[in-house]
Structures are given as C-alpha cells and as structure tokens.
Amino acid sequence: MQYDLSERSLDLFDALWHGELNTCLEQVDTGFSFVSPLTNAHEPAPKQLESYCKRVSSLPKILDYRVLQVRRVFETEETCIILLLGNVLDSSRETIGFRCTFVWHIQPEEPRLVHMHFSLPLAPPDMPIDKLSVSAQARGNPIILRDTDGHSHVVNRAEVLYLESRHQYTIVHLPQRQIRVRIALSELLRDFPDYFVRVHRSYVINVLHVEQISRREIRLAGGSHIPIPERRSKSVREEVLDAMIRARLVSERENSISPKRK
C-alpha cells in the first residue's frame, strides 16, 4: 500500500498544533525522538510530546498557522524526511516563521514516525540566502591537500564521503580513493563547510552522501558504515538531519536564483 507521507505529515502537524496527543502517539515508532522549544530535552520523547501538547492547547485560540512549503528533502526505500515551512500568525496578522521536520521509517505494514523536530521562531521561508549556513562558495571551492608522501591533491569538498582520524593522521575518503594527510581531524574540519558533521570522535561525515540513519550507525553512498556512539545516538541523528535540511534548503535557494542560460 502506498502512503502519502507529505499529506500525513500535514495532518500530524495539525494534530500537534491543536495539542492532540493521542493522534500523535499513534504514529510514533520505537525509539521515537522529539525536539521543540517548549520541552525538556532530558525527558523521554513521549513525555516531551505530552508536555508540549499540554502547553500549546490554548494556542489555536489566539494564533493561526499557514504551511507555505512541503518538501521531501531525503528519501530512500527505508527512510523519508518531510520538511514543512510556514508562518505562525497572531491576531494582527504579523508572522513568525516555523519549520517542522518529520522523519518516517517506511515499513511494509505502515510508515512510523521516528523523529519530529518543531523549530519556532525562525526567520520566514523567504529568508535571504546569505543568512543560511551553507554557502555556494563553501561547497564549490576545492581544497588542496598534501598527502604524507608529499603529493598534492585538488579535492572538491562536496565529493568527500567522510573524514577519519587514525592515530596522528586523517584519512580523507572519496568515492574512488583515499588521501592520508598529517593533520588532526579537528584542525582539518575547520576547512570544511557545516554539512560535514562530527558523529564520532574518529569520524566526520558529509551529510550530502547519507543513505540511511539508524540508532547505531550511518550508511553512506558507496556502502560505508559509520558508527554512532550509543550515548550520543539521539543528538547525533538530530545534528545530521538538521545539516541535511540546511544543505538542501541552500541548494534549492541557489538553484532558484541562479540565472538561466539562454
């Protein structure tokens, strides 16, 4: 059976807006995580969701919302990420931007929600590109790396799959080769844009190449599996998902403002 996860995310957001706890809980999967500006991050996710619904139950009386964009920002056979962008309107019709992210685990029986992140306030969806965190310059400019044998390599940052710390070296993993440099991972990371996320003491991944995220590891294009520390599983997944969304937003915004070739 096919499910319209965009429509389901819209319905779930409406239930969240009106504080309908049971409707939300019916959709969640084991290991569900929830992030919002109104909850205590130290509480279990279902408890956070319950607290959130109680606190927002009176909001629909004084505020309204308008969803402006619904985007599928990531999709594989097992995972689908839906992003809602819109505005919250008060009685004077002044607006505050919001963003809500839904991460669905696609199962044979029925999709289940594994993560929901509601961010408020935000700048409106038409925010200028220079306010976003990933610039075209950071993505497009190559970096020159000198390996341990003294050879120089010109590398497009976006093509790097991940960085790996190994003793006093860092291994730069690309689809067809590896480059070993005598630079600490933390130092090398300064030369990479923020769609590179440190998910482990020894690993930094490029979220542009993420194919699947689970509680214990991240699978990248080409079949690489990067471990996630168990104690940081939730925070790492949230950082990776946020970076994926930021990168996709900037890419779409740049494409929309780039002059078309005649």
TrEMBL record:
It holds the Pfam family LytTR. Residues 143-242 form the HTH LytTR-type domain. GO terms for molecular function: DNA binding; phosphorelay response regulator activity. This is LytTR family transcriptional regulator. It comes from Parafannyhessea umbonata.
